[in-house]
């Protein structure tokens, strides 16, 4: 049921395909395919592929991928190639930019125009960002992602950069009313599950230095001591002078000094401490912060690091073509007490003949990662 085509000058050439693997990862820009095709069988030669070609992949008549060939490896009358969708051009291109009073969608359109990347529907993100400066060369993808982070802070809304039919777009993050289910005994094939307290903390200590400005008296410079010889010398060389009026005492001068005050905030998980002992996590916080803010940070960090950490990954199941990274999925595995909805962090779909299986990793929250992702 695999249909794989090369597109050149508007003409489609069908490729003799052995297997296709379609991959993607949340907040990692392009989706990709790795396909193995047959280029020769005895004296019979088949259509091949080269770098820069556009490829189109369909499964059961539905388009799942369209992108550009970036790499290929020929071997034994076969050829394996890798192609990426249009978001690859956001990762590969870097530049410096200064934006003022622009929305994230306007920034994305500007980048698409500057680098001649075809675009489809770009959703209006609403929030106007006063200033966004990139002094160092930054990938176009990270520029857009930073604009979306600023938008999320102000509006609470998530947006997804995507590629469809050879064009990049921007849409509100999909939140379907109906969610696909992977369940043991139904469509689940295999999985990996583990629990651990290796990264758990039962006590968190946060340290910070608070700089306080205080005013103190300026110290006067001490006068040097006068010796008997100096007095005799002054008597001989100094001429008698008229008596002068007594001078008024000078007002004491005040100067501002910085005083460093060490602060400490502690958060405890008493129940876990009785069970697992003291597992202390220590952090030093930089920047201006007061005691209440420091305590809040300690409480938040404890909430992130408390309890047994559970990891569910490498979930292998019968293939669902529309299920990809960034989408919600409900997973039911009674043997380990799992019955909840996750977000797909990364997906890998394998197609061979009429068979389609997939392997996914999941996360509990669909939060935007910090830092550059390219």
From TrEMBL:
Compositional bias (Basic and acidic residues): 225-237
SUPFAM superfamilies (UniProt xref): Phage tail proteins
One family name in Pfam for this protein: YQBQ
UniProt-annotated stretches for the region Disordered: 219-256
YqbQ/XkdQ domain ranges (all copies): 20-218, 255-362
InterPro entries, per the entry: YqbQ/XkdQ
The name this protein goes by in its record: YqbQ/XkdQ domain-containing protein
Species this chain originates from: Bacillus pumilus (Bacillus mesentericus)
